[in-house]
Specification:
Radius of gyration of chain A: 23 Å
InterPro entries (chains A, B, C): Cupin_1, RmlC-like_jellyroll, RmlC_Cupin_sf, Seed_Storage-Functional
CATH superfamily of the largest domain in chain A: Jelly Rolls
Strand content of chain A: 35-45%
CATH architecture of the largest domain in chain A: Sandwich
Oligomer: homotrimer
Number of helices of chain A: 5
Largest interface: A-B, 38 and 42 residues
CATH class of the largest domain in chain A: Mainly Beta
Protein name (chains A, B, C): Vicilin
Number of domains of chain A: 3
Largest sheet of chain A: 6 strands, antiparallel
Strand order of the largest sheet of chain A: 8-9-10-17-12-15
Structural class of chain A: mainly beta
Distance between the termini of chain A: 46 Å
CATH topology of the largest domain in chain A: Jelly Rolls
């Protein structure tokens, strides 16, 4: 799957193979990055004390099965290394060595899941790796959503946006990323997106989501015109929600602290956000 | 849904919100126009005595549900206004006013369907609206299919075509529009389209559609090569029909008056029309 | 369907109608060519003694039914001519002649299938046809995969590749073509493609395909990380196999003669081939 990532805490490094080089990029809070499907990569937490938090969007459109399928090219018992599945004769011929020689490489400490602790020696080896692959300078740097002026800001909050126009890695995926900071007792003006499907992830604070969607109708009712249905849901840290193109919605910071939501905007190309209240309200231009 | 429209009678106005302006375009018989999904718009019949007739094509490819979903941002009991579905506390906060104040805006006379009569005062208000939104000059003008030379013309009839090459609004939708005028007792040469699916709408006259399609086959029969099936149908004003890419068809004006058909050509980009008889007959170039 | 073809033996000619001309291109062993959906064409074996062998890929993405549907614009009882399905009155009007006059054209000797023997006289008529349609010079020439330096070559074999960058006809279809020659007792390094689905057709020799694919898992197992499954299959002349993006695989020439495989790479645009062993091994760049 194509992968878009957003760092929400900690410090680390992402490394991936690009045109026979290992390309490394530093990651810090607010960084947006993307890695194309099939590119081998790893992520390293380089901070001694803090956890590294990353939100990922996986787009499976390039998968012929439509499923998310992950392949570990380095691994052991858990996760399995894809290479270890080949027959012993294939491996011996491919690596020109006996399976016994391969074993250490195939295991690499991966026995209890895809996340492992890296020793100081391994860390040094990774650093040497970085020096070896000093190239890849044409690959983009991460784009930081926080170290720039917000796209919108007033007494009630601020919005930071990164889309195809800002960053090549997002254009490839047709995805935008947005961060909303809403002060307590504030709300966004009711709005909808013309083309994007949005996935929202609540990072901090508590709030309310209100969304209006079309109501399914019987044939006879359709002559009465469309009717709509309201959905109201509580937002807590970790809540994930989705809004479809055309469906109006609003979020309200109902707690005592700011409400912070990270959005992935899928199919963001050509999308417009239409507000139904406030200064940019489309209703102002209608009779 | 993305919308392509063709005016077949009367006079009016289409108005839509584009980059915080209300853009208005005059509509008259033969005009082709398109409005992208999610753009709020209204259509006004400005003629005192005549009806305004418009044929619309709705492309739902940007809808994640695959359904056509319409949203009324101004409305009342029927159609419902999407805004009216939000909770009263949301609306009061959004509009900084009590629901009572909102009521007139929410109702606006929409109680018996999406089409309403506009009083002289409301018409004036709409005109003021137009002055306010004097911009949008970069948005294209409607394209008139009739006020130009036909793409094809002889004693038997004429064809007017508008596609991506002619008009930006059609390129966005990958749709072409075509008008066929066929004199009584005339027919089109049997032909097929290489990539377009065509939707035909009979506007005037009577005729016959003949179409050849592949016949489904049992496994054993397939060794005998493909076989085909003829469909023959009467065409009357209002008849709608569809032809798939590759399926040869012809229409015949069988009545005493001209047969006029409006076509929407879906996926018109890269399409070629191949004739199986007549001067441009592909068979002339085959052994 | 859009068609990509690769000539694997013999000599011949492909002729198709392009902008009211008959365009002809010579075909010989190793030639790659493509014909867009809906373009009438025929293929002629011009060699007196040898068979003409062609491998074809049919892409049905432009078909609204998703099925491969073939239409014969010249034909008789088998295959049927699509034209012959129209009503007699339609045909008489279209061709301005009685059905009796049409009969010879409609039959043309096609009674026992889509492949017929062409007499010396008919061959001459086809040659005259070629002179008539001397144009189409802007249409590309076939691209020969063999009369160029291999993209990769060493003691174990060689690889010839043609993709969008090489040839306009392949860019249209988003398809690449590749020919692999593997010496006896040689193997390809285990590898996967990031975006392409590959269809392999064994032309000569015997071998083994080994492929690793993800194993479907129960919910509970998923917490254990992904597991994989090996597929091992014998390759013989005529064997057709498919590899999905991301699935690592290798082929081994296990017989006494070279193993030759023709590949069609579907969705080749933006694809990268990642090797898991050998000089370009992505593992070299990982810790």
């Amino acid at each position: 799957a194509d992968l878009a990532l957003y760092v929400t805490g900690g410090r680390g490094r992402v490394a991936f193979v690009h045109e026979e080089r290992l390309v490394e990029r530093q990651l810090r809070d607010g960084d947006v990055y993307a890695i194309a499907a099939g590119i081998p990569f790893y992520i390293l937490n380089t901070d001694d004390s803090r956890r590294l938090f990353i939100h990922c969007l996986l787009r499976t459109q390039c998968s012929t099965t439509g499923l998310y399928e992950s392949f570990y090219v380095v691994g052991g018992r858990n996760p399995q290394n894809v290479l270890s599945q080949f027959s012993e004769d294939v491996l011996q011929a491919a690596f020109n060595s006996s399976k016994a020689v391969l074993d250490p490489m195939l295991v690499s400490g991966f026995n209890r899941g895809a996340i492992i602790t890296v020793s100081r020696e391994q860390m040094e080896r990774l650093s040497r790796g970085r020096i070896k692959g000093f190239g890849g300078s044409e690959e983009p740097q991460p784009f930081n959503l926080l170290y720039r002026n917000p796209d919108f800001s007033n007494n009630n909050g601020e919005i930071f946006t990164a889309d195809a126009a800002d960053h090549r890695v997002l254009r490839r995926l047709n995805v935008g990323v947005q961060l909303l900071n809403l002060k307590p007792r504030s709300m966004t003006a009711p709005h909808y997106d013309t083309r994007s499907t949005r996935i929202g992830i609540v990072r901090n604070g508590r709030g309310i989501l209100e969304l209006v969607r079309p109501q399914e109708q019987e044939q006879q009712q359709q002559q009465q015109g469309p009717t709509y249905q309201k959905l109201r849901a509580n937002l807590n840290p970790g809540t994930v929600f989705l809004t479809r193109p055309g469906y109006p919605s609003t979020v309200i910071a109902s707690g005592n602290e700011a409400l912070q939501i990270l959005y992935f905007d899928i199919n963001s190309q050509g999308n417009r956000r239409q507000f139904l209240a406030g200064r940019s309200n489309v209703l102002r231009y209608l009779p």
